[in-house]
Amino acid sequence: MLDRRNFLKLGAVGGGAVFMSGLYRSVLANTESDFYFVQLSDTHWGYSGDANPEAKNTLKKAIESVNALPHQPDFIIFTGDLTHTIDDPVERRRRMAEFKDITGGLKVRNIRFIPGEHDASLDAGAAFKEYFGATNYSFDHKGVHFIALDNVSDAGARIGDKQLTWLEADLSKQAKEAPIVLFTHRPLFDLAPKWDWATRDGAQAIALLTPYTNISVFYGHIHQEHHHMTGHIPHHAAKSLIFPLPAPGSQDKRTPLPWKPDAPFSGLGFREIDVDGKVSSVSEFPVVKA
Fold first, then answer.
1. In angstroms, rounded to a whole number, what is the distance separating the alpha carbons of residues 129 and 114?
2. Class of domain 4-286 (CATH, top level)
3. How many Å is the Cα radius of gyration of the chain?
4. Beta strands 180-183 and 144-148: pairing type?
5. CB-CB contact of 264 with 273 (8 Å)
6. Domain residues of the chain, as ranges?
7. Which residues contact 127 (CB under 8 A, 6 or more apart)?
8. pTM for the whole thing?
């Protein structure tokens, strides 16, 4: 944990969020509203291949890591690609049932989910809804407004007019300075469109978010830590729990980075986010190693 002197050396990056590489935690004074949650992403349950020969164990190890945290989070959210895509609808549902059973081993019972394209693009989210409920929703927790946005059920990588109308109506109930956290799977901005690292109508969502002064976006999909600003809005990508992917646009294809037998699970992890009503701070934790 950083001491206050070192913490103050870190710069603030828009929206009241503070970031640095590696592991750190907020050392702001505790208040009654302080809490934290855990984000896990891109578990791809059902994947089998050279990019992760330990694919059947990685999710379970991540759950062990979360359960071992000295203070359990208020809630846990999985930001998409819970399962690895497959054409067979029966097998798709079997994988979702297995995923739900495994994540049922988490100590925290307040668990939330949003889909990734692997979960939802082949059937417009039908199977996901059967097992996990709505693909977009909002909720409030200790003074912070949370929004889950679906930019994957549409096979064309769009949020869609209906959901954008819903988002606008949901935001209209919030004060302009209200603390807001938005979860989505794909990035809302054009990170690497040729790799499908973009949302076709994401600019419309960002335009709706822009009038709000204390908002942060957390997403998955790109299998690595990444931070980006659109105006005053920070966007933060989470690492994957299956295999890392190359830096945006660094090569022709987005092929997984090779598995390292001498450093298993490297590049994988989950994220702990502290929230005190105004400030969110990001901590990266490695998956428990074998």
1. 10
2. alpha beta
3. 18
4. parallel
5. no
6. 4-286
7. 89, 92, 93, 96, 119, 120
8. 0.87
- Alpha-helical (H) ranges within the chain are 4-8, 55-67, 89-103, 117-120, 126-132, 161-171, 202-209
Query: Cα angle vertex 186, ends 180, 189, to 5°?
Result: 75
Q: Which amino acid is at 192?
A: A
Residue type, 255: T
Digit-coded pLDDT (tens) for 186-199: 999 999 999 999 99
CA-CA distance, 201 to 55, in Å (whole number)? Answer: 33
The rounded distance, in Å, linking the Cα atoms of 187 and 271 is: 17
Report the alpha-carbon distance of residue 139 to residue 182 in Å, rounded. 11
Torsion of CA 168, 172, 174, 177, to 10 degrees: 90
3-state secondary structure of 229: strand
Average pLDDT over residues 144-169: 97
